[in-house]
Amino acid sequence: MFEARLVQSVILKKVLEAIKDLLTEATFECSDCGIQLQAMDNAHVSLVSLNLRSDGFDKYRCDRNLSMGMSVPCMSKILRCASSEDTVTLRAWDNPDTIVFVFESPNRDKISEYEMKLINLDQEHLGIPETLYSCVVKMPSQEFARICRDLSQFGDAMTIACSKEGIKFSAAGDYGTANVKLAQTAETENQEEAVVVEMKEPVKLTFSCRYLNSFVKATPLCAQVQLSMSAEVPLVCEYQIGEIGHIRYYLAPKIDD
Amino acid sequence: EVAQLRLSSYYIMS
Question: CA A2, CA A156: separation in Å to the nearest integer?
């Protein structure tokens, strides 16, 4: 049997908001360690990697490993039926055809159950090696979301340049150009507002704004976002999910032909 | 001209 309970269903609601732009179907791998998902968008340009550790759940039981293929729009519809203060429990039996979502109101006077059919999916797994990145930037996630939104008005692509001075975002198009520079912040008491650059070598890479604007749907999950970059490898954009895990997005760069 | 690469250019698919 598989059973995972989260007192804060709002976490799962936010996770679905963070993946539904990119994925229509995904296989959730459930094991003793927790719930993992790795899936690419249809164009195979970006990848979502989600990890929810079992010890982050309020109750977690997984008697045998399960791979559950789910429709992301359907799951998203079901989670929209939960109030943010509800507790959510995911439940499935061994060799399941369906998964059940149970939402309980705080005083348990309302219990809602939604059963969703599972789907068989061809699994494509990318082997992503441990990588030491040339630049790792931590910055406020809302600031990153705003920059992606603002610069995407100027062009389809955004160049991110990281140096010891800080990080620069730029876009160019028919209307003109846009540049936003963020300097490293001095030691600040408010870590959520900090911009921190760890740099071994300067990096300059160009990415599709459309995908970046999908990644920033994860902004409500965490006050800070971490961007990891090296020359000629995909960007990693990472958001911590409270004490339970993280979501990482990988994005292949654009290159001059 | 700018080209969009795919992730399979970097990582091995299994």
Answer: 43
Tell me which residue has tokens 């080209």: B3
Chain A neighbors of B2, CB-CB under 8 A: 157, 206, 254-257
Q: Is residue A252's pLDDT more than 80? A: yes
DSSP A186: P
Model pLDDT for residues A165-213, shown as the tens digit of each residue: 899 999 999 989 999 999 998 876 788 899 999 999 999 999 999 999 9
Contact B8 A44 (CB under 8 A): yes
- What strands, in cross-sheet order, belong to the sheet with A176-183? A176-183, A166-173, A157-163, A203-208, A254-256, B2-4
Q: Does residue A244 have a pLDDT over 80? A: yes
* Dihedrals phi, psi of A172, to nearest 5 degrees: -140, 145
Chain B residues whose beta carbon lies within 8 Å of the beta carbon of residue A237: none
**Is the pLDDT reported for residue B1 higher than 80?**
no
**Predicted pLDDT at B14:** 77
Sign of the C-alpha dihedral, residues A53, A47, A14, A243? positive
Whether the CB-CB separation of A74 and A116 falls below 8 Å is answered with yes
Å between B7 CA and nearest CA of chain A: 5
CA B11 to chain A, closest CA, distance in angstroms equals 6
Question: Helices marked H in chain A — which ranges?
Answer: 9-19, 72-80, 141-151, 209-215
Residues paired with residue A197 on neighbouring β-strands, in sequence order: A137
Q: In terms of Cα–Cα distance, which of A215, A242, A237 is closest to A226?
A: A237
